[in-house]
What we know:
By secondary structure, the chain is of the alpha+beta class. It contains seven helices and five strands. The protein has helices spanning 2-27, 38-55, 65-79, 82-90, 99-117, 179-193, 196-211, and strands at 128-137, 140-149, 152-163, 166-174, 177-178. A five-stranded antiparallel sheet has the order 1-2-3-4-5. Helix 1 (2-27) runs antiparallel to helix 6 (179-193) and helix 5 packs parallel to helix 7. 28% of the residues are buried.
Amino acid sequence: MIAIGNAWKRWRCGSSWFTVLIIMVICIGVVVPGYAGPPTDSMKATVDEVLRIVREKELKQPEKAEKRRHLLEKVVAARFDYTEMSRRALGAPWNQLTDQQKQEFVDLFRTLLTNSYADKIETYSGEGVQYLNERTEKDYAEVRTKVLSGKTEIPLDYRLINKADDWRVYDVVVDGVSLVNNYRGQFTKILRASSYSDLVDQLRKKTDKLKAP
Length: 213
């Protein structure tokens, strides 16, 4: 149980880390990229729509908070492939799950991520982002950027997969640290100390706590 407790502490840090990267996603619209191919164009399309929602005066009204949040989650979900992220984050145990179990895990993991950033998505401070380059190999791509915040420069890379002619994000690497690998390490430690059923139960409790007012 100690191992599980420690993993959950790191899990909380992972959620905060995801909040940071989502805020960085919004900031991409600040600087015109030096290079733009299809994957970069796809990222920019998502960012432009997020910015439009965040800046819309009518949606800033308190009574519109739930609608604004729903719109933001919808836009982000259209670019982030939560199923692919879930599969990679869980690792080998994913192949042993039924279709119903896979969907349950995806839903829980998505809720964990979205509720971690939803309340803070409008708090970005307008940092600039510089596009460094874009690499593609068949159906995979990586868009490398650099976040400029004061005197600090943070490497931020997006890994995408092409599905049905649409580029979807399946991992984000912040300063050399992979979001997927970060969660996989935490999930693996919990599974080794307990079971998949216990992991799901704890994940459900975590997401319920995040959804609570």
